[in-house]
Amino acid sequence: MPSPRSSRERRGGSGGRLEFLSLSQRGPAAPDSPSRRREPAGAAAAPLPEEDCMKLNPSFLGIALSSLLAIDLWASKRLGVCAGEGSAWGSARPLMKVIEVSGHGIPWLLGTFYGLCQSDSSAAREVLLNLLFALLLDLVMVAVVKGLVRRPRPTHNKMDMFVTISVDKYSFPSGHATRAALVCRFVLRHLVLAVPLRVLVVLWALIVSVSRVMLGRHNMTDVLFGLLLGYALYGVVEHCWLSPATAPALFALWSH
Ligand SMILES: CC(C)=CCC/C(C)=C/COP(=O)(O)O
């Protein structure tokens, strides 16, 4: 059995103490701490081994995070009422899967590309080209975060999704939620719609997001983070807005 110190060294550490300071590490016990009080009189005040300190004194942040994750897993499992045909709301699963397709990347990419080919006004071309850019940026960002975080999908999820890529075996963040938030912000900002339609767009984004947990595809934190990421990505799109002035070559490609 390797000693804790040798495992630290094998993981590339310099042997210095700063390596594990991020969440749980504490300095030496305070003079009046219980661990000091238990020492026999006259014994040398040897500090506790680092790993024992981490177990006995987990940081507040560590406890808060583990509790949040435990609540997330528990609540998401309970809300996964359409996770299978035999689940509490199993009969609604086909409807949930239709909602899933409405937020999938393929129809959005194909639809936007088709619209771009058909568009006959420069304003429409500009908006659709930026929507295409937004959808591609979203796919890349979600793939990068999923690949970095590598959080597995909930155990009750049935992996029967329409067209997935390799990182879609991971669940954090929800790609459907990022797309729903991004498209919702984009559409509300760049399409002139009557109020009832604007409400429908927001409802669609919310339903797509909630359906991810109901289908058992995601935990709640995957969806919440996905919504935040999609919302933030719209800011990036607006900041890098493509126009005939900033990207003339791109626009020349699409002008008829
Ligand atoms: C293949 C293409 C173009 C997109 C993949 C879309 C997809 C399957 C995303 C996964 O969404 P969740 O993370 O919400 O399950």
From TrEMBL:
Xref: Gene3D superfamilies: Phosphatidic acid phosphatase type 2/haloperoxidase
Protein topology in the membrane: Multi-pass membrane protein
Keyword entries, A-Z: Endoplasmic reticulum, Hydrolase, Lipid metabolism, Membrane, Nucleus, Transmembrane, Transmembrane helix
Presence of the UniProt keyword Lyase in the record: no
UniProt-annotated stretches for the region Disordered: 1-48
Entry keyword annotation includes Lipid metabolism: yes
Residue spans crossing the bilayer: 127-149, 191-211, 231-254
Gene Ontology biological process: farnesyl diphosphate catabolic process; geranyl diphosphate metabolic process; geranylgeranyl diphosphate catabolic process; phospholipid dephosphorylation; positive regulation of neutrophil activation
Subcellular location: Endoplasmic reticulum membrane; Nucleus inner membrane
Record-listed E.C. numbers: 3.6.1.68
Signal peptide, first to last residue: none
Superkingdom, natural source: Eukaryota
Domain Phosphatidic acid phosphatase type 2/haloperoxidase: 127-238
Family: Belongs to the PA-phosphatase related phosphoesterase family.
Protein name, entry field: Polyisoprenoid diphosphate/phosphate phosphohydrolase PLPP6
